[in-house]
Structures are given as structure tokens and as C-alpha cells.
Amino acid sequence: VAVTGVQTCALPICVAGIVNRVRREGDHALVTFVRKFDGLTLPLEVTTAEMKQAASQVPVDVRRAIKQAARNIARVSAKQVPKRLNLQVAPGVEVEQRVEPLARVGCYVPGGRFPLPSSLLMTAVPARVAGVRDVIAVCPRPEPVVMFAALEAGVTHLFRMGGAHAVAALAYGTATVPRVDKIVGPGNRYVAK
Prior knowledge:
It contains seven helices and seven strands. It has helices at 15-25, 27-38, 48-55, 60-80, 117-130, 144-153, 163-172, and strands spanning 45-46, 85-90, 93-97, 104-108, 134-138, 157-159, 182-184. The strands form two sheets. A five-stranded mixed β-sheet has the order 1-6-5-4-7, with helices on both faces. Helix 2 runs antiparallel to helix 7 and helix 4 runs parallel beside helix 5 (117-130). The longest helix has 21 residues, at 60-80.
């Protein structure tokens, strides 16, 4: 992954600097930025047990709505998966198109003022339906409703982090965060560069 078209900035730390430090220093830089920008001192990865415990706090009607949304997204996503093509164009001549899922996808889930379980569902569920083996989600402050959505969507790993440092960790990988083949999710100029 190359960072192109990023200009230097007058700020003490800009996006290009963050990305380059995470790429070079891995977890050391990542933890520094998580503490600085996300204000976190907790472990980076949310455990499955923690997700289950937090999910139990989500009201039943909200859980029901998330489950229904996940089913609807899965139904639509299943119709969008490209089909394998195998066609005999002449005797002894066959054309084949294989569609293979990516091995690992990173889902960026914002966690600013409001929890966004919909962002998690709309990125993780299609990946799962497509056959992606590992779905990694990042969210700076995953609320219980986001953790429930992560469980429902089949997220493999959920990390407490956001911003450019989270995107860089997904793009390049660190000792803690696996490198992904594709990063998806909503974003703005702070998370998309």
C-alpha cells in the first residue's frame, strides 16, 4: 500500500506521518497514537467474552433489529456475489472464470459521538457472505451495541482504535493487528488518506 498525493502539513503530526510511523514502528507507534488520539489505555483487542458480556446489555428490541438488519444485508449481499462461469465455447475449448474471496478484510467503524452498528453490519456482513475468512473490525470506542453487531456479523477480531493509525495498522499489519487485503467503511479526510 502506498501513500500517494499526501502533502506535508504544518501540524506536529499529520496523516502521512502517522501512517509512516505505524508502518515503520508497528505496535509501538500504534499504541502511542491510540493513547494520544483515542484516549485509551485498555488492551487493543476486544475479547469474545467481553463482546458477549457487553452484548447482553443491549435491549432485546435493539438486538432483534440488528439481527433482522444482518439477515437483510446478507440476503442482498448473496445476490451480489459474482457467479463462477464455466463455458464451452467450442469442442475442447473451455473458458472458466473463478471468483475467489479475499482472505482478510478490515472494516473501519467510526466511534465518535454515536455508536454505529450499521457501519459494522454493512461492511462485515457482505465480507462474510462473500466468503472472507477473517473479518477484522476497528472502532475507537466500541459500545455494547457495536459489539453485539460484531458478534452477529461474525467479526473475527475487534480492535479499539480509529483514525489514520487504525487504517495504517490494517494496511501494513503490526504484531497485534493482522494485515488485511482490503479496507472498507465510511470515512472522511481524517481516515481516508
